[in-house]
Amino acid sequence: MKLGRATRFTLVAMLAGVVSLVAMAAGRVPQPALEVDKTTTCVAPPAEMRRTHMDLLKHRRDRTVHAGVRGGKTSLETCIDCHAAKTGAVTGRPDAFCEACHAYAGVRLDCFECHQSQRGAKLSGAQGPSR
Question: Which residues contact 130 (CB under 8 A, 6 or more apart)?
């Protein structure tokens, strides 16, 4: 049985559509279930933090590096203290706060190449990788 060109194209397109739908339905990743310290409040509502936390962290980084401003409500250490409440660290486990969201969103997490990701952790001496 010989099929015409238009018929073959239609069948291939239909098959591709079915395969795409099956792949999308099967490939959905559940949103991470995250727990935070509920005894404190964050610097911004969760919806805003999801969209802008990276900008807040960059701004804070610049203030720390250029002006020497450390500590306070918007420091990375303060963020880690709340967001590592369940696991003790914000990275290193699939259910850790930062790692879970970044894996879900498919975004590279590079803050902790230089910074500690554990609650209450302090670095002694030089911080970060040598360059």
Answer: none
Q: Compute the distance between CA of residue 108 and CA of residue 125 in angstroms, rounded to an integer.
A: 27
Residue extents of the structural domains in the chain: 46-113
Percent of the chain with pLDDT over 90: 5
Alpha carbons 35 and 33: distance in angstroms, whole number: 7
Cβ atoms within 10 Å of 16's Cβ, excluding its own: 10
Eight-state DSSP code of residue 105: H
* CA 9 – CA 30 distance, rounded (Å): 35
CB–CB of 117/97 below 8 Å?
A: no
Q: At what angle do helices 46-67 and 76-83 cross, to 10 degrees?
A: 140
Encode pLDDT of 83-117 as tens digits.
887 788 888 888 888 999 898 888 988 888 888 78
55-74 pLDDT tens trace:
988 888 898 889 988 888 88
115: left (phi over 0), alpha (psi -120 to 50) or beta: beta
Token pair belonging to 85:
């409440």
